[in-house]
Design goal:
globular; disordered N terminus
Amino acid sequence: MNKSDAATSATVKRGTAAEVLAAFVRLGLTSFGGPIAHLAYYRREFVERRKWVDEGDFAQLLALCQFLPGPASSQLGFSLGMLRAGWLGALAAFLAFTLPSALLLFAFAVLLPYVTGGAGEAAIHGLKLVAVAVVAQGVLGMARQLCPDAPRATIAAVSAALILAAGQAWVQILVVVSGAAAGLAVCRDVKPVPGAALHPPYGVRFGWMLLGIFAVLLLGLPLAAHGGRLLAVIEAFYRAGALVFGGGHVVLPLLREAVVAPGWISEDEFLAGYGAAQAVPGPLFTLAAYLGARLPGSEGGLLGATIALVAIFLPGFLLVAGALPLWRSIAGRPAAVRAVAGVSAAVVGLLGAALYDPVWTGAVRSPLDVAIAVIGFTLLVAWRASALVVVLWCVIASLATSALT
């Protein structure tokens, strides 16, 4: 490392894994509100309060995590832990931020078969309506941020139309690839972000090795998946985590394709779990713990929850760890930035299509359902209520309308 690099990275202070664990446990228990809210929690905790990094380093880490596929808020936490305390710090950040919500969703999966009768079914239906409100808010927020001009708005609209018209899972991958090509062609006003000298406890060669492992797993797991359902489960969740640009709610259609299309989990179970995920703190990707636990046979339960959770987070962490030592050169390439802008716009279209099918079609059955979902959306967008408030509203309203009809 040369002197200029050392000066640039001087604001990234070293600490201990125990310190990282303590900081992220608190966030894992209290970070309601989804990925965007998580970024605000991180900034307040690690830039303003603890001063682990300065504004410039935080902005560069955020840009890197938004550039890559995967759960951006979890990748940012993983990177902060890595820079603070090495690999143990990265692992501590992941476990502390993820386990609280994963355990809550695993418990929900275990208790779901006992939620029977009119009241239980009405509560589950309320969770489905939560998904309508939350995904609609996600579409609106991402459209504002990622489609601020006519070219990117057009990419999003065409992507949504293609997915809805085709009705085939493979079209999602085609849309993402086409989004990258369209971004190269039309997103010429998107400017590169200057790279920073962020120095993890390893070099460029090891970074390339991590990226190679990511690619080998992405290409090799589909072949290995023919060896049994356990390998097929690993492949399905790894693929979902590897192809998500934007994180958060964007994983919805990919996870649905991973577990509903093969018949492992019903549409109703899937939407109920997605709604329950809005009621817990931490990353939305912990929905994988619920889905893994609900898998049939020996692949379900605690084993399924653990495998699904590790498989869905692993690709994002391999990517961000591999890219950290390379980020300075990547961030300055205009072609890369334009391609990612196009992919991000296509992802907005993908999520918009998912808002209609399966979220709307699977949850809304009457004008009363529309009213409940619209009020939930208004609470989120106009009143900036927490997702927990919206969960309570939708479930209580669903129970009330069930009792009156």
